[in-house]
Structure formats: structure tokens, C-alpha cells
Amino acid sequence: MLPHALCILLGLAHYGLSVPLLDAPGCPEQYGVQTYHHPEACDQFFLCTNGTLTLETCENGLLYDGKGAVHNHCNYHWAVECGPRKAVLVPLSSPGCEFRYGIYPEGPHCSTNYVKCADGVPYINHCDPGLAYDDKTHSCNWPDLLRDYCNPEAVVGFKCPDKVDPNSISAKFHPYPRYAIPGDCDHLVTCVDGFPRLIACGEGKVLDENTLTCEEPEHVPSCHLKKK
């Protein structure tokens, strides 16, 4: 942290863009880039760049937590614990964006897309296949965990059987039976409490329908030709 005397002096600077603090004591380190908490304001921080000290203000919708990487060392406001520091959050609404920087649902209903705002411009982003946007976590999630407004079967495109044949390969994965998706070598479905979750094999592997496990393509002739 910065020395107490420096914090008091810097705290007198006005809010705004980068403010050079020419009359303030020097940076604790003279090389590289370092950032430091403002003692009172959660939307401001001190930046040292090769010994040059400036007072920085986070963009609208962002706050400083020492580890943010959304924009200029700041993070989304809902991801920051300010403690006793005060946060100044005034919405600057533009079409699709409450703040200039933020993540928002595409609409009031279940969606496999979400809106990411940067500098006040909304950009549509897509969840990975089989996932839907969760406004509580500001991320994509399993649709069976969002059943208040999501239909997992509609998102995944698969309905879990009411009963599992005890002699089937699927039954070997009890209590979470697995199923292949016809024509899809890259995914399988796992049923959790009767609801489907789409699982990607990933890492260049493909699904072996005979074992319902993901294998190297050369071990699965039916998918190996498709991968070439």
C-alpha cells in the first residue's frame, strides 16, 4: 500500500480521467506498472507507471479491486467487494446497456445469448452449446439450474427417458445416465435428476457410442473419418 501521507494528499485530487500528481511523493517502485487502492473511493485507484504516479477513475459500471481486467485495471461492479470504500455508480443508460461496461441478459426470457457492453456499445455473445445465461451469476449456466425460466429440454434439444434400461450402457453411469446424440461426435448428454446436460468431449476427442466415453478419434472409426 502507499504511505499514509501520500494517500491523504492524493485523496484531495478531483474525480475525472487520469490525473498526474506532480507534487506528490514518488511511487514506491520505479519500474513496471503497479496499482493501489484509493483509501476512500472504490471507483478510483492510484497507478504507477515506471515511477510516474497518476490518479485513475474506473469507467462507468466498473470498480477497482486490485485484480480487475475488464478495462484499465477495473472490474465489473458486481464482482468487487469495496469494504469501507465508497462506490459511485450512476447509470449512463444507452440502448441495451445500463452502464457503459456490464453484462446483461438478452431479454426477460431464457436465452443462450447475453449482452456484453463495452464503452456503451452492446455486443451479443453466445453461451457454449447446451448452456443458458444466468443473470444471477452474470455467466452461462446449466439450464436445469434455471428451471424458473428455462426449459432444459428445449435448450439442449434432448429429453431424458423416464426409465433407464438396467442392461444398457447408459445405466452404467447411474445416477447420471449418459446418452449419445445421433450424428454428433463431439458431445454426449448426461441426465441429472431427469434433466439433460450437454457435455462436450473437448481436447480433440470424440464420443464412442459403444462405451459412451470420449476417446481419441483414431479409436472411434465412425468419427475418425469425420474429423479428417
From TrEMBL:
Keyword match Cell division: no
Chain ranges passing through the membrane: none
Signal peptide range in chain numbering: 1-18
This protein's UniProt keywords: Chitin-binding, Disulfide bond, Glycoprotein, Repeat, Signal
Pfam assignment, any one: CBM_14
Record flagged with keyword Metal-binding: no
Domain Chitin-binding type-2: residue ranges: 24-84, 94-152, 157-225
Cellular component GO terms held in the UniProt record: extracellular region
Molecular function as annotated in GO: chitin binding
Name of this chain's protein: Chitin-binding type-2 domain-containing protein
Organism expressing this protein natively: Nezara viridula
